[in-house]
Each structure stands twice: as C-alpha cells, then as structure tokens.
Amino acid sequence: MEIWINPACSKCRSAISLLDAEGAEYTVRRYLEDVPSEDEIRDVLGRLGLEPWDITRTQEAAAKELGLKEWPRDETSRERWISALAEHPKLIQRPIITAEDGTAVVARTDAAVQDAMSR
C-alpha cells in the first residue's frame, strides 16, 4: 500500500495516524517532492475509476491561474488535465491510497482509509 501525501495537510496526517494505529504496512510518497509522472497519474486514475478533473483541487491558486473551472471535462481534454496535474502536483487531491488489490481511494475520511486497508 502506498499513500500520496502532503505533510502540511491535516487529512493526510489523519490518514497516516489511522494507518499507524491499525499497524498497516505502507509506503509514504510526498508527491509534491516526488512528483508523479503523467503515466503514474493515468495509472492511479484507472485504479480510482475516476477522471483527472475528479481529483483536481480547483480552489488552488494554480487552478485559478490556469482557469481549470472553465476547461472542458471530456475525453478530448483528458490529457490536458493530466498534464496540468503532473506540472502542478499541488492540484492533486490528497491523500490517495493505492490498495493491495490494485484499486485506490481518495482517503479524505477515516472510512475511506479503513476501506483501503480492507482491500
């Protein structure tokens, strides 16, 4: 299991605390420092069953500068969104846990973290 975190994020710290309390084995990826490639973002999107706009933090300053709220959310724009996430990793929703069964979850709640641990 791997968890993508921003250490400054309270939801990330909460998820780590819960994983530790449950004795889960996991690897931490500080995704702002170890930025995911476009291929890694595509992979995690497939594991999540989501589209890039579904995991984009549209309230971030970079999102506003890029005008992401106005970008089309369709198949022809998908690669543009993925490129934006790779170029501006702060836009990626967090934390994301990749589970042992090949799936992933956006672990913003305790229930989502527990779901990832049960997979």
In a nutshell, what does this entry contain?
The chain is built from five helices and four strands. It has helices at residues 10-21, 38-48, 61-66, 78-87, 110-118, and strands at residues 2-5, 27-30, 96-98, 104-106. It has a four-stranded mixed sheet, sandwiched between helices.
List the helices and strands and how they pair.
Blueprint: E1 2-5, H1 10-21, E2 27-30, H2 38-48, H3 61-66, H4 78-87, E3 96-98, E4 104-106, H5 110-118
Parallel strand pairs: 1-2
Antiparallel strand pairs: 1-3, 3-4
Helix pairs in contact: 1-5
General description of the model:
The relative contact order is 0.22. The chain has 2 domains: 57 residues, no CATH class; 53 residues, no CATH class. It has 5 helices and 4 strands. It is an alpha+beta fold and 119 residues long. It has a 4-stranded mixed sheet, sandwiched between helices. Helix 1 crosses helix 5.
Give the low-pLDDT segments.
none
Q: What quaternary form is this?
A: single chain
What is the element string, with H for helices and E for strands?
EHEHHHEEH
Main beta sheet: 4 strands, mixed
Radius of gyration: 14 Å
Total beta strand runs: 4
The proportion of residues forming helix, as a percent range, comes to: 40-55%
Strand content: 5-15%
Distance, first to last CA? 10 Å
Total helical segments: 5
Summed over residues and divided by their number, the pLDDT gives a mean of 96
Instruction: State the domain count.
Output: 2
Indicate the structural class: alpha+beta
Strand order of the largest sheet: 2-1-3-4
Q: Specify the overall morphology.
A: globular
